[in-house]
Specification:
2 domains; mainly alpha; about 35% helix; 11 helices; Arc Repressor Mutant, subunit A
Length: about 270
């Protein structure tokens, strides 16, 4: 659970921050709010959207660009561990004062504290390893190696599902992998993750009548093959599942057989 953080007034005049787009500045402040006591947080575009922009329609591509701009300005380090992306804020401890720090539950950045930029010098590219890749280090926005492809898609989507706290799973099973394999025939990893995230918004919101909770395998299975399409566009999902006025959360209905009134059109199908 994020703790209350201090925002230094000098942040508004910092050259590192001023050169960022306004949206990236807001994202950076959100990163500060959601970082643990070691200055670490989950760094995938999906995780950042869920934590910082849950009710906004900004795309994952936008969030990724803003994140990479923050990294390129040396305000954060992005790294990968076992298929998941993380962020570390090197100056976090300098500006956050607390009587007790709780140990981070997230993986350490590569080479630990040695990655902190010193006196404006760029981070040494030799610190980048095959297992842990940095985004934007020593280069422009978007410079880096993507994660989540091949076998990593299973771990990334499994971790995301558990982060959403719909129905948590202890381990990644064969049924889950087969369901992911089926889903990725028609959808990208980002589309699958976005549908999961939007499903969590609907199923947890008292203003929506849909409350049925699936497991990860059920959500992605062919038996429920329209789930990704159903929840891919958050605004359409909100419109489809909006509860009638005057109904309380206790009156919400759950249904397995819901047909969306509108359908999402993927860019390549337009």
């Amino acid at each position: 659970m994020p703790r209350k953080r201090q925002i230094d007034p000098d942040i508004w005049t910092s050259e590192q921050v001023l050169t960022l787009p306004i949206e990236a500045r807001l994202l950076f402040i959100g990163m500060i709010s959601h970082a643990d006591d070691e200055g670490r947080l989950r760094g995938s575009p999906l995780s950042l959207k869920a934590a910082i922009f849950p009710g906004d329609t900004c795309s994952l591509e936008n969030i990724k660009a803003w994140r990479n701009a923050i990294v390129a300005n040396k305000l954060a380090v992005c790294y990968a561990n076992e298929g998941s992306e993380y962020l570390w804020l090197p100056s976090f401890k300098k500006f956050q004062y607390m009587t007790k720090r709780f140990p981070s539950k997230l993986p350490e950045p590569p080479e630990g504290k040695d990655l902190t930029p010193a006196k404006g010098k760029p981070v040494n590219d030799k610190l980048i390893t095959k297992e842990q890749h940095l985004y934007g280090v020593g280069g422009g926005v978007g410079n880096g190696i993507e994660v989540g492809n091949g076998k990593d898609i299973y771990t990334a989507l499994f971790n995301l599902w558990n982060e959403l706290k719909i129905i948590s799973h202890k381990k990644l099973t064969g049924d889950m992998k087969r369901a992911i394999d089926g889903a990725k025939k028609d959808y990208s990893q980002e589309e699958i993750g976005l549908a999961m995230q939007n499903y969590a918004v609907i199923v947890k919101g008292n203003e929506y009548y849909f409350s049925h909770k699936w497991t990860l395998a059920e959500f992605l299975s062919r038996r429920h093959s329209n789930n990704i399409e159903r929840f891919l566009d958050l605004e359409i999902a909100k419109s489809n599942f909006k509860a009638e006025e005057g109904k309380s959360g206790a009156d919400r209905q759950s249904s397995r057989q819901l047909t969306p009134r509108q359908s999402y059109t993927r860019p390549e199908d337009a």
